[in-house]
Amino acid sequence: MKCPKCSAPMEITSFKELEIDRCTSCKGLWFQPEELDFLRNETWMADYILDEGKVKTGKQFNEMRDIRCPQCDADMEQLTDPDQPHVVYESCPRGHGVFLDAGEFTDLMHKTFWDKFKRAR
To answer: How many domains does the chain have?
Structure first.
């Protein structure tokens, strides 16, 4: 599979019984829907093991539009996390998975006081 953002090959990285696709170049992460749900509840070390990319690189790639699903080639939708609306990620409209740029998974895993404040506004 190729990265939906930079077209570099994706590599498999493991955490517990899950195999997650990670871009070999930009370090973005491709999750099957159930994988992301599981990992969001498994906070201990998941982000440190999986999300090894630079936040600055992730922010640059987050500006990209017209992203295609690496599995079905559909136009991916940009979504925001309901608990942390500053986190914008891409989702396949056919349910194949979601793509998080480098640093976004770590951000999702660590809710801060400011995240609660942002949501209240």
So the answer is: 1
Q: Are strands 77-80 and 18-23 parallel, antiparallel or unpaired?
A: unpaired
Stretch 77-97: mean pLDDT: 90
Sequence-ordered alpha helix ranges (H) in the chain: 33-41, 46-50, 55-62, 104-109, 113-120
- Does position 119 have pLDDT exceeding 70, yes or no? no
Q: Is 117 within the bounds of a domain?
A: no
CA distance 55 to 98: 18
Cβ proximity of 30 and 1 under 8 Å: yes
For 78, the domain range is: 10-109
Tally of CB atoms within 10 A around 59 = 13
Domain-embedded: residue 87:
yes
pTM tops 0.70: yes
Residue 3: per-residue pLDDT: 95
